[in-house]
Every structure is written in structure tokens, then in C-alpha cells.
Amino acid sequence: MDADAYANRPFETKQGYLFPKANLKRRRMMNGVLAFPSENLALKQMCEFAFESDLVPPWWPEDQQKAYLCIFGKSTYWGLPLFRLGPPMLYYYVSKGDETSMATPRTDLYSIPPRFRALWYDPDISKLDFLEWQDKMSIHFYGSWFRRMFLGVKSFNEGSLIDQLLKNHQIDPAEHPIWSALALFIIFNCDKSVPD
Asked: Comparing C-alpha atoms, which of 90, 121, 84, 80 is closest to residue 23?
């Protein structure tokens, strides 16, 4: 799980699986919180891609693969364009098999969609009630946006979600600017048990 995922309760798997339903239109599957059985075919194929292939994503159109190989010869992780692995790779390999039925509703793991991220800081935490985030497994804080929004911030709006979470875990953002909230998620999640 990503360090910017905040567990509201222990993560629960379905027979060892924990991944969100895919965005079929964008052909992506969020990958901030994942669990697969060790003998899972999609996991095996992702490992084969990572360790035994030329690292040219098979989910790219064939002409893009050929152009990439023509220009670069072969790839490295660091040579691939940003965001070319992760969600597209997970979607590609999981959707090839019959495991999609094991998916968890996206809002159980990502209870506050990115379009509502401004509400993290809103002094009226009740504006988030319609999302029923307290009943979900986790909140994802999308670290890159979080850092941009709160870089250097030493106090958060009284009553906001972030203010409440920091207070619940006795973390003073004045002593730990910006990283305080990320530290909160790591510390809190280390106290949560994750089923095998």
C-alpha cells in the first residue's frame, strides 16, 4: 500500500485479493492498495514483464511499441514515460484473466475521489459526509497533489479532515510541516493489521 493511504479500518481481502474496480473507459486500475495471492496469474505476468522482458509495455498500441524500440532499442524502468506502468499495467494484466470479479468497489479504497480533494482542507468536515468515507476501508491522499496543496503549511483549517486526523494522532503540523500528514498515514497504517 502507498504511504499516502490512510486506513479507516483493517484492509480486508477476498480470498487474498484486494484491488479496486477498473476505470474501463480509461483502461486503468488504481494501484495504491493491492493484494494478490502469491500464485496469482496476473501477478506472475507482471513479474515476468518486470524481470524477463524488454520492458516495452504490451498494452501500448503496436505502432507505439515499434517506434519506442526503434528509437531506444530497449527500455529501462527509468526510461519509460512517467505513468506508463502502474494503473495501465495493472489493468492490462488483471483484465486478461477472470479475476475482475474479485475487485473491491473503488470507493472502498479511494473514498474521497480526487475531484473532491479541496474538501480535505475545508473547515466544515461535514461537507464530506455524502461520501460516507468513515465507513470505507481507506482514504487516499494522492501524495503529489497533497504536497503541492500543502507545501510549507504549518497549520490546517480548524475542523477540516486533515486537522481532525492530525489531532486524532497527536501530530503537530507546526513541528512537522507538510510531511506531518504523510507521517500520520504511515504511523497509523503500521498499527493496522492486514490479513494474509
From this structure: 90
Distance CA 168, CA 87 (A): 32
- Residue 76 in domain: yes
pLDDT tens, residue by residue, 42-92: 999 998 988 888 888 899 999 988 988 888 877 776 677 766 788 999 999
Q: Report d(CA 157, CA 160) in Å as an integer.
A: 6
Judgement on whether residues 86 and 134 belong to the same structural domain of the protein: no
CA distance 106 to 150: 25
**What are the strands, taking DSSP E only, across the chain?**
5-7, 138-140
- Look-up of cell digits 486506513: 7
Instruction: Give the CA distances from residue 179 to residues 102, 142, 176, in Å, rounded to whole numbers and listed in that order.
Output: 34, 13, 6
From the list 193, 156, 192, the residue with the least C-alpha distance to 171 is 156
